[in-house]
Amino acid sequence: MSRPRLIAHAFALALVVSGCATVPPQSDPEARAEYFERNDPLEPLNRAVFAFNEAFDHLLFRPAAETYRTLVPKPVRTGVGNVIDNLLVPRTAANQLLQGRPDDAAKSIARFLINSTLGVLGIFDVASEMGLEPQFEDFGQTLAVWAGTTNGGPFLMLPILGPSTLRDAFALPIDMAMDPWNWVGQGDQVQALRLGRYAVQAIDGREQLIEPIDALRAQSLDFYSALRSVYLQRRERDIRNEGRPAARRFVDDR
Amino acid sequence: MVLSRRTLIAALAIAAGRPARANDPATAAAFIETRGRALKEVLDSDSPLAEKRDRVAAILREAVDVRGVAQFVLGRHWRTASEAERAEYLSLFEATLIRNLSARFGELRGLRFAVTRAQPRGEEGVLVTTMVEQPGQAPVQLDWLVSFASGRPLIVDLVAEGTSLRITQRSEYGAVIQRGGGRLESLCWMRCGGS
């Protein structure tokens, strides 16, 4: 059986086994309101995927992030993180253009040029010191701006990739296609570099979230719904550009 | 001259010598400032950790509208709950909230904080923005929603980097109750570990 077909079958099976959450009856308007606010009709399936993700995180992902933290000293991690962030800037600029914010796009391009040259391939975030603060945009945010709503449709728990919504999951492959680094070069070595970049990006991201996720896990009554709520709130803030991502620091006495 | 009711109330307030204006950003900012200073004093002291936690908990109990937060978090289930259930839930919720918050702050040392902004949030109260900095770490933005509904300023929400504590908690409690078949006891079952 081909792989896509296998995945489709597994998906269908999971749907049959776990079923969808049922909409509360008309006679209970408050329960209905809560159901639509939660916006998670696939919850049983999502929770099954989440259980898998949790196992993956405990066994592989979090340990890898911890090892990364232990083996690689903070200044090096900051430099690596800066390079990774810098590679994301062209995508940010493209999305800022699509969102009708040419001024911000110009700032991002300036940021990219400065950090790629003066900042030695992005290792040093010189632009932040010059007042060009980091910004992150992705196609999911652009879709939200176009749609004029922060509501991203039903919540989805993607295998490995984690919390998402219909909108953000749809935007994911478009973001990949829009990233200029996926246009240049070919061959096995380029492919390996590309995969390496995504791996480092994932480990770096997880390393920064070790404490916040541990705290959320320890303090939540129900980790799944806490994570869902936090994800949706964060996305809403990202879409409205209310948060200001801080520049990474080279020294840290954590 | 006919005095409108509002003018009359304002005049009375001035006569009484204290501003009765609700949702006053300056009052809310000062409130957060003094509570923050008290908290910082405890955290920077040399008392043992257990004692620090108790003192932090005492400050929080006075400054946080625990009952208001508890009602918000339970949402529609509050109204259908019996008096006994409410009382049990309230004590459970207070213990959890204070424990979580004291754990979050209890071990911090040498933190610096500054109130950077206070903006009215309509009926809800005033949102006071603080930047909190721990030695060697990037500053974190914490927003405190201060409500005047009870007549004096009280904290009703803490928004950490865009994530509202009470909204997250409401979503969790809702999920637990729903998975427990809509019964409030399911909350205790989660906390008491099956007993």
| Content of β-strand of chain A | under 5%
On the 0 to 100 scale, the average pLDDT of chain B is 80
Q: Biggest interface, and residues per chain? A: A-B, 29 and 26 residues
> What's the overall geometry of chain A?
globular
Calculate Rg of chain A over CA atoms. 20 Å
* Main sheet attributes: strand count, strand direction, barrel closure of chain B: 5 strands, antiparallel
Number of strands of chain B: 5
Report what the structure shows.
- The complex is a heterodimer of chains A (254) and B (195).
- Chain A is mainly α.
- In chain A, 67% of the residues lie in helices and 3% in strands.
- A two-stranded antiparallel sheet of chain A has the order 1-2.
- In chain A, α3 crosses α9, α4 (74-98) packs antiparallel against α5 and α7 packs across α8.
- The longest helix of chain B is centred in the middle third of the chain and has 24 residues, at 83-106.
- Chain B has a 5-stranded antiparallel beta sheet.
- In chain B, α2 (25-44) packs antiparallel against α3 (49-63) and α3 (49-63) crosses α6.
- Chain B is built from 8 helices and 5 strands.
- By secondary structure, chain B is α+β, with helices and mostly antiparallel strands.
- The termini of chain B are far apart.
- The A-B interface holds A 30-31, 34, 38, 215, 219-222, 224-226, 228-230, 233-234, 236-237, 242-243, 246-249, 251-254 and B 75-76, 100, 103-104, 135-139, 161-164, 167-168, 171-176, 179, 187, 190-191.
